[in-house]
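[Meeting: bench + compute handoff]

Bench side (C.D.) handed over the final construct sequence. Compute side (W.E.) agreed to return the predicted structure before the next meeting so the bench team could plan truncations. Sequence as handed over:
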Amino acid sequence: MTVSGRPTWMDLGTHDLEGAKAFYTELFGWEFVDQGDDFGGYNMIKKGENFIGGAMSSLMTPEGPAEEPQYPTSWTIYLDVADIDVALEKAAAKGGTVMVPAMQVGDSGKMALVQAPDGAVIGMWQRLDFAGFELDLSVGTPVWIETLSKDYDAAADFYTEVFGWTLAEMPSGNGQPRYATNGEGNDAQCGICEANTFLPEQAPSYWRMYLQADDVDATLERIIALGGSILDGPMDSPFGRLATVADPQGAVFQVIHSVHEG
């Protein structure tokens, strides 16, 4: 079953691209393939034979290198859209803010960045020759992607209207935060979590991905040894053992030993 608005890409913007490349190559065995000056030094990330994401320097602008980072070091998630111009119009109509307008990326497709009404930044990708993720759910690849939202109702409405999500609410109660998936059961593609009760007041809504680990505790030891940090966990969940971590430059992600490993 095809689910509208599925996650289709992730990329890292960082003030220290070479440091990030060294970290993720050592941690997950990723390969970074520089696309050259025509694409601003953008790197495609491969795990094995599959492309799983990208990375770029936040010190690069359309006019050339800059002395200061142009945006915070972080991971950005992209959702698939059929028509990026229509999606951007819908985003603006639903209270979103266009941060990067539609941009052609060679023959691969078109991308854009928007800020949802809850403050989370999300990318759009309209495929042409390149569909995005090629995932096998192996170690070092994303196994789940979700947004933590401080305005669950506004976010649910936004992603439903702009990206065509079909939300399936998970059971909640006893003060537990609401959670819904885009798609149901085995067709679920990503999630939205009501996070206003546990995110710090100063923390914005944001998107995050879970990367598969063969052994979470051993992976955390490697992350510390490579200069990264543990922000939360490790802990056990119904979906596997997991932790929240950051790379040496500060980009946050999750590691998990998923019980649904492919």
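W.E. noted at the follow-up: The first helix runs from residue 17 to 28. C.D. will use this when planning the next construct.
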